[in-house]
Write a structure and sequence with these properties.
The chain has helices spanning 2-11, 13-19, 27-37, 87-97, and strands spanning 41-44, 52-58, 63-69, 75-82, 99-100, 105-110, 113-121, 126-132. By secondary structure, the chain is of the alpha+beta class. A hairpin with a 7-residue loop joins strand 1 (41-44) and strand 2.
Length: 134
């Protein structure tokens, strides 16, 4: 099943560029995917006693992706932090790929599961959160 998901991700790189919805993947699978498919993103080894996550940033530090992991090293949510100047582009991309579910909120349907994509504005960044629908 994961092979099918990975193939779908590889065949639709436009979707992967902004969402990186790798929820359900193990940490080592995410690292392998990112090293092969997102060479523009650099892995940063981070230690945190409160959360387990994998952190990737681009060379210009205008984009950071955090893959939050559970105790079994399975990704259960994703957060993309990016420059606020790309907000309009992200909204267009999400509107074209997913079902809109309110202001700055979309539903991604994948393999019979729904994932919530939310975009929020912070003072110096635009934050996109992807998590399974409860």
């Amino acid at each position: 099943m994961k092979v099918i998901i990975l193939l779908a991700v590889l065949l639709f790189p436009g979707t992967c560029n902004y969402s990186q919805n790798l929820i359900g993947y193990q940490g080592r699978e995410i690292q392998k995917y990112m090293s092969c498919n997102r060479k523009d993103m650099n892995f940063e080894n981070v230690k945190n006693s409160r959360f387990r996550y994998l952190k990737y940033t681009d060379g210009s530090e205008s984009q950071t992706v955090l893959f939050f992991l559970n105790k079994d090293s399975i990704c259960n949510s994703v957060r993309l932090i990016c420059d606020p100047r790309v907000k309009a582009e992200k909204i267009r991309e999400f509107n074209s790929a997913f079902n809109k579910d309110g202001d700055n909120k979309w539903i991604e349907k994948r393999e019979g599961k729904d994932y919530i994509i939310e975009l929020s504005d912070e003072m110096y960044s635009c934050i996109i959160t992807i998590k399974p629908e409860d």
